[in-house]
Amino acid sequence: MAQAVPGRFDFGGFMKHWIWAALAAGLLAGCGAQEAGKGQFRDVLARYAETNEVCLPLALDADGANAPLLGSERIALPRRNAEDKRINEAAVKQMRALESAGLYERLKENDDDVALVFVLTEKGRRHTRASLNGPLFCLGREHVDKVQYYTEPATNAAGLTVSRVVYEGSITMDGWGKRLIRHGSEAWQNSLPLKRVEQATLVKTNDGWRDMRELPPVEGVAQTAQ
Fold first, then answer.
1. Domain coordinates of the chain in residue numbers?
2. Is beta strand 161-173 parallel, antiparallel or unpaired with respect to 208-211?
3. pTM value?
């Protein structure tokens, strides 16, 4: 066996220690990506949230019943009631904010003192999703504030290792979304689920944990609904 000579750099010993340290670091990094924990799961949820908008059934703060849903192709707002009093002041301000943002366009051929009529633009359609109960309007992206708790990872009937996560989220909006909310009444604002508790299913893959919604559907395997 070669003996280390005092005063001489032991290159072989240095390389051996360096290789072992690199291998250990790689193993630890791999374990970190696979282990379950609140911090790890929050990062997984945030990665999904960064690329997906939050879309809600969102009615204007209009006077009377049957307030128009944002995302509708055409929205008409009467300006006066049967007693000839001004109505829909908050809703008009909200629609003007969306008009300024290019999401709706106001039709000019109508008498503005009778009713204001707005039509959805192509940009507005990109912020709209269809649903069975009417249009959903996309306000922004979700910010994952905190993971409350999660179930211990377990293998399901499809052979996937999954964990159910409950977390607190809030909506991060662009300027037009903030103006839309600000023009509504306090009661209207308080009715919106801008901060909420959500659930998600995470699945363990060869590349760490992923939100189930990130994975393409596999034939014969149903994805868990959120």
1. 36-214
2. unpaired
3. 0.75
